[in-house]
């Protein structure tokens, strides 16, 4: 049994959320640890993390083939969605199932603060590494969570949109007025404020990827790294804006098994979902040049693991991956920034600030 299978077996009885709507990061963080070469850390971390997770809910009504759309966005149907996807994955190859269902789920990508889509991306990379029944089960649960927490945004994609650098296109993203913003609470509630905000509707058509999606993905990641650096001023905002980067990073992981046209439309929805975070609560974009990073990648990995924080691990992984795709120093700068603020020192500072405020 490999390390990921062992971790998934530990999580087999664990539900997808805990507390007031917090997503379980256990399978995602475990897979990210493997990706950064720290498989030795997976089992101890998962063993500790799973203590916060409740058990899996029981299934109720089946998700019927011709009426699956009626169960979208209903968290109470999560277990029913799991059953649905487990059946589909028994009948067809998992890449086939992915190409059928990802287009259906794309408009609800921002649901659960991206976590259904992010979890799916990590499940795909895990299966590409080595297939197993446990990994197939995890893909079913990832897709089920995406479907159960489906949340759409204003706007529909039209074909033949101009290819623009996302860093340029984001200047045209309309942001919510201050009086309409929700600055505290869950990310899903903050983004939901865009539901009646018509100026956001054109966002999905501001850019689309060319046939070669890799360079576009790197530009997309840099754009939302710059949004992160400009707006991540508190521990809560660090965690919030991290998802604008880890989300598109996960969509790129899915692209390994998606048809080219599906990959391209998936990245358009990824652009829209990350832009929604910026539109809902963001204020600025970091435009500073970053010519070098003084530290080492090995140090970033070690420090990310030392934080014990799932967001630090996942963000560091996607920043290192982006840096391998194109060695822009800003990716390492951003990882260092998040590790510093999510580590013990950052937690102490946040507590001190809260007590003083």
Entry summary:
The protein has about 350 residues and is mainly alpha-helical. It has helices at about 5-10, 25-35, 40-50, 80-90, 95-105, 115-130, 135-150, 165-170, 185-190, 215-230, 235-255, 260-280, 295-305, 310-325, 330-340, 345-355, and strands at about 15-20, 20-25.
Tell me about this structure:
The protein has helices spanning 3-10, 26-35, 42-49, 78-91, 94-105, 115-129, 133-148, 166-169, 187-192, 213-231, 235-254, 260-281, 297-307, 310-325, 329-342, 344-356, and strands at residues 17-18, 22-23. The chain is mainly α and 357 residues long. The chain folds into two domains: 3-148, no CATH class; 155-357, no CATH class. Strands 1-2 form a two-stranded antiparallel ribbon. Helix 1 runs antiparallel to helix 2 and helix 5 packs parallel to helix 7 (133-148). The longest helix has 22 residues, at 260-281. The N and C termini lie far apart (50 Å).
